[in-house]
Amino acid sequence: MELEFGSYDLHAPLPRMYRAQQQFADPVVDDVAGEVRARLQASGLLARIGPGQRIAITAGSRGIHAIATVLQAVVAVVRERGATPFLVPAMGSHGGATAAGQVALLRELGITEESVGAPIAATMEVVPLGQLPAGPRLFMDAAAAAADGIIVVNRIKPHSDFHGPIESGLAKMTVIGLGKRHGADAMHAYGAPGLRGLLPAAVQAIAGRCPILAGVGIVENRHHTVAAIAVLPPAAFGGPAEQALLERARRLLPGLPFDDLDVLVVDQIGKNFSGAGMDTTVIGRVMVPGQEENARPHITAVVALDISPESHGNAAGLGLADVTTRRLVAQIDFPAFYLNGITSGTFGLRRSAIPFVMPDDYTAVALALHAAAGGHPDRPRLVRIPNTLAVESLLISEALVEEAGRAGARVGPCVGPLAFDPDGRVAPWAAAVF
Hints:
Layout: E1 2-5, E2 8-11, E3 16-21, H1 32-43, E4 54-59, H2 67-80, E5 84-89, H3 99-108, H4 113-116, E6 126-131, E7 137-141, H5 142-145, E8 149-155, H6 170-177, H7 180-188, H8 191-207, E9 212-220, E10 226-232, H9 240-251, E11 260-269, H10 280-283, E12 298-307, E13 323-325, H11 326-330, H12 334-343, H13 346-351, E14 356-358, H14 361-372, E15 382-385, E16 393-397, H15 401-406, E17 410-417
Helix pairs in contact: 1-2, 6-8
């Protein structure tokens, strides 16, 4: 592989690649709807719901496994009590910070009035709820604030932007998701230190002023299916019970079986894979002022080849990469991209930067190999993945084969070097076959 830029002649041999399959043996909930129903009924938290009441149920912007099934089960339990359930988009400024955009995001996730059995009340209007002492102002989605009760539904998992006792989950969905753009702006202005320290107090202040009935927490396994369902009272949001679920989710995080890589090639970035575009626990980069970098893995060069259609041009997290392609940059919707970055405050500063832009996939990989594996060009440590949500099946270079086996991965026969079409586009991803 040779690449010329003016007087520069970059030479980077393409390594021989092998398919590898990580082996994950994780807990799984087979009957998601039945588990949601059983947990809600056993909690007793819906006893306050009566005929004629209007109950708001949150729906977020993340690609959570079986989320339509979860919401459908919550809707059914509420309706059985004679109340009228409805969904509210709880996603801060996502969807271009418009009600129509947020409804469109839900539709792409399979969440519609028909799929869950309840209407969607979408608005960007909020009700102010006061301010934390020496902290942010608090807000609540106007439709949810006018309801007789609110049920918060969200996945509980480590956050891609900061580390703390409470990260993504019921507290964050309440404060930032239901806070719409105003709530997201207010919290993100305090950066990573603020989110670590202020989320528990913020969610309890909101719970004291709004009729929150319960929270349905979803924990996923490394196959990205449901590992556990928990129902918590609002008094537990941001407390030890939610912390315990976060630690359980942390133990089930997927990742790469390597501590050090020269190059990681990511076929697609996108908000549907991670709020950061690329999962920071997978790539080992956080790049947020005030937040320590992850201890592993260390990757010298990250290449982002494309953006998912589901992201609608929001290239959030592109700054986490070192090299990208003209194809990806041509798809960026800069108003949506920058709005997301601006709302994220310090989280968006570095992550919204544009890395090296190469004409095609071929030249992007060539540049990364030249820069990151120049000292050992014949033995580069390279991995290719479809996205940071799907890391069970990998393409690994020959230098990593023995290490992958020691880590418990199954390694198949050599499939040759990375293949590119005449336009320089990498060959489509194919599932591992052993």
